[in-house]
Every structure is written in structure tokens, then in C-alpha cells.
Amino acid sequence: MTKKTTTMLITMLLCTSVLAGCMSEDEIELDGEDGGYEYASNVDNHRMLMGDVCDIKDLSGAYDWEGVKDIYENGEHAEKSDGSYRTLEGFASASGKNHAYDAYYYADGSWDDFVSAAIGGTGAFAGESDTVRDQAVEKGIQNGVMTAYAIHELNAAIIKAEAGNWGPDDAQHAWDEGWAFYHGPDDADADYDGCGPFATAAKRGGNFGTGDATNIATLAAMNDGLTALKNEDMQGVIDARDEVLKNVVIVYSQASVRYASKMTDDLAAGDTADYDKHQVEG
């Protein structure tokens, strides 16, 4: 083998190893199910948004507000086919969505108002401690923004089905997105399911001795709803959506009771710092 040939082979091997490294690090291939729910369509991009939630939780816990703001506004994990990123701010600030939060608060993009104020230390969070802002950001995104969008997608699925668009590119796709935003991916290379509402439900069940009851019921309802969509059974879809909503209410009722109880103890102890922290958590 000539010196020139050897050099060419080494160069080719180096290029191949570099490309292989890029593929393994940048292109994560998700399997077709999360937590017992098998998707009818490809919602990998939506599932990967939970990676942004996980990273924001880490940065917020370190009080890195610039880092939090960057991921919240610009995105990090959920890259679309056109090279742009799906963002949590885009979710939180969107108007006219199929959830009741904006109507309740009389404001479009109500969750963005809350989260952005917590990130920036403005509005209701002006002068508040980093601890309070951290809890507002984490809880606001994990339990506010992601729950709102999961609910939006379930309602969007029903609207699409009512228009006769039952298939995996329409109503079933929207239903899949609902689970993607509620649960998140649990793959080895994208293990983000600990950062969504599903994880919160498990924690609150542990606090109240109800175990995984709400998550089991929610998963069953999601699977029932997808089956109903495949069978073009409108009442079945509506019943499944309502069952999911019922369990969401249970989860966050547990959360409110838990932190209200802690606030009562904080008042008795004269601990205003923990009182403020637990207030924003609940």
C-alpha cells in the first residue's frame, strides 16, 4: 500500500468517525410509544419539547435567568423540518387556543404573562426572591403551559373529528400531541418524562397515598380516546377527554391542598420565606 493510499484511507476513516459521532449526538430516534401509549402518528418533534422543560428546570434551579429565557423564547430540542424550533413561549403566548385558562384570566397568552414575569423578575414577581421565581418558572411551565397545551390538543382532536377528519394526519395526530405534551418521551436517549404533568401526578399521588391512580386512569382514557377516534366514535372520544380532564383536576387539587397546608404551617412558624415559596408552588 502506497503512502498516498494510506493517507487517503486514514482521512476517510476520520471523516466517517466524525459523521457517525454527529449522527449519534444530534439525531435522536424515538420509538413509537411513551408510558404505555402507542402513537398513531409521528409526533417526535412535539415529544422533544419536554427536553426544553427539563433543561429550563435545571437552569431555573441554578437561577440562570438568561439561560432560562434563551431556551424559553428560542427553543432547544424540538427542531422542525424547516430548521426553526418549537418553543415554550410560543405555546404559552398563543391566543385562541382550546383551553379555558385565557378565558378564566381574561387575557390571551395568560401563561406567558405569568412565566415571563417570573423569569424577568417583573410584574407580580418584582422584588421576589430567586427561590420564588424558580418555583414559579418550573411550576408555571411544567404544570401550567404543558397541561394547557395537552388540553388544547385533546379538544383540537374533537374539533377535527367533528369536521370529519378522523385520521392519523388530523384528529388522531392532535390526540397524540396531547399525550406528548402531558407525558414526554421516555426513551434512553431522550428520557424527559420526569418533567411533565404526568410526573407531577405521580408525586401528588405519593403525597396523598393514592399512588398512580390518576396516571393509570389518564393513560387508559388516552388509549380509549385513540381507539374511539380510529372507530369514528365521537361519544367515546368525548368521554375519554372528560376522563382525562377529571384526573387533571384531581392532580392539581391535590397540589393546591398540599401547598396550602404547608403555608398554614409556615404562618404558624413565622417563616415568611417558605410561605412565599409554597404559595407560588400551589
Descriptive account of the structure:
This protein has 282 residues and is an all-alpha fold. Helices cover 69% and strands 3% of the residues. A hairpin with a 2-residue loop joins strand 1 and strand 2. Helix 10 packs antiparallel against helix 11. It starts with a helix and ends with a helix. The N terminus is likely disordered.
Which structural class should the secondary elements be placed in? mainly alpha
Beta-strand percentage range: under 5%
Q: Which bin fits the share of residues in helices?
A: 55-70%
Overall domain count: 1
User: How many strands, what sense, and barrel or not for the largest sheet?
Assistant: 2 strands, antiparallel
Widest beta sheet: strand line-up: 1-2
Shape: globular
Average pLDDT rating? 89
Task: State the end-to-end CA separation.
Answer: 72 Å
**Poorly predicted ranges:** 1-25
What is the CA-based Rg, rounded? Answer: 22 Å
This entry's quaternary arrangement is single chain
How many helices? The count is 12
- The helix-strand sequence is HEEHHHHHHHEEHHHH
Short account of what is shown:
This protein is mostly helical and 282 residues long. The protein is 69% helix and 3% strand.
Question: What labels describe this entry?
Answer:
two-stranded antiparallel ribbon, 282 residues, two-stranded antiparallel sheet, 69% helix, 12 helices, disordered N terminus, globular, mainly alpha, 4 strands
Task: Tell me the layout of helices and strands.
Layout (H helix, E strand, L loop, with lengths): L2 H24 L6 E2 L2 E2 L5 H18 L3 H10 L13 H6 L7 H5 L4 H11 L9 H33 L8 H12 L3 E2 L2 E2 L5 H12 L4 H18 L3 H36 L2 H10 L1
Antiparallel strand pairs: 1-2, 3-4
